[in-house]
Amino acid sequence: MLLEVEDLDVVYGRTHAVKTMSLGVGGDEIVTVLGANGAGKSSLLKALHGMVPIQSGSIKFDGEDLNTLTSAQRVERRLALVPEGRQILVSMTVHENLLIGGCKRRDKSLLADIETIYDRFPNLGSRRDSQASTLSGGEQQMLSIGRALVSRPRLIMLDEPSLGLSPILVESLFELIKSLNSDGIAILLVEQNTKKALEVAKRGYVMELGATVLEGDANALAKDSGLVHAYLGTTSN
Ligand code: ATP
Description:
- The protein is α/β, with parallel strands linked by helices.
- The protein has two domains: 1-66 and 172-237, P-loop containing nucleotide triphosphate hydrolases (Rossmann fold, 3-Layer(aba) Sandwich); 79-152, no CATH class.
- It has ten helices and ten strands.
- Strands 6-7-8-3-9-10 form a six-stranded mixed beta sheet, sandwiched between helices. A four-stranded antiparallel beta sheet has the order 2-1-4-5, with helices on one face.
- The longest helix is centred in the C-terminal third of the chain and has 16 residues, at 167-182.
- The mean pLDDT is 93.
- Adenosine-5'-triphosphate (ATP) is lined by residues 12, 15, 17, 35, 37-43, 84.
């Protein structure tokens, strides 16, 4: 496994947000984590990225223990996070946002890599000098993913990327996720769009109140969507 998480606990005061969670992501896999609002999905990703402290447990990436590394060091190890709500810098240009994604890189091919991101997302290329605030929601999501790609990730963690996107953009987002994976990037996808997430993923985990309540092959979870939705507090129709 490229990412191996064992018995992870995240606690905020009296809230036990993640409870002895274990999961793995292989280097060629798309793995999804599903769960209702407040299930602990964002806390899990933030802990994996070093943005919130863990109470106990172990996080290994390519065999290396990440526990004592900062977020920036995790990016240098090529573990990227696309946070919930995009969190791009709206008063800066598209290009500046992408440069920030590469601020930890010391090699000379950063600008060439940014050009390949513009090739992948032509809407960003034609707006490279525009303020990010002028982009549509879908373009801002592309920019957030583009910024993560600048760090040449081996694994990208995406926190509810489809939130707030129109159905057409949701389709193209999931196509993009598949194509990133075909390009050799492992994906850990937190989603509330259970159906689409299970369609693209190889395996899935369902969280409730911080703990894993179901896990397995994505096809099997999709077939058992009634049970998955019962944990999510939604209907499968
Ligand atoms: P959502 O889909 O709403 O983002 P989630 O599954 O990502 O939900 P988390 O945001 O990880 O869930 O929240 C898990 C629990 O931890 C919730 O009870 C939430 O209120 C709590 N929580 C999250 N962040 C903090 C924080 N910084 N301080 C205290 N409690 C927090």
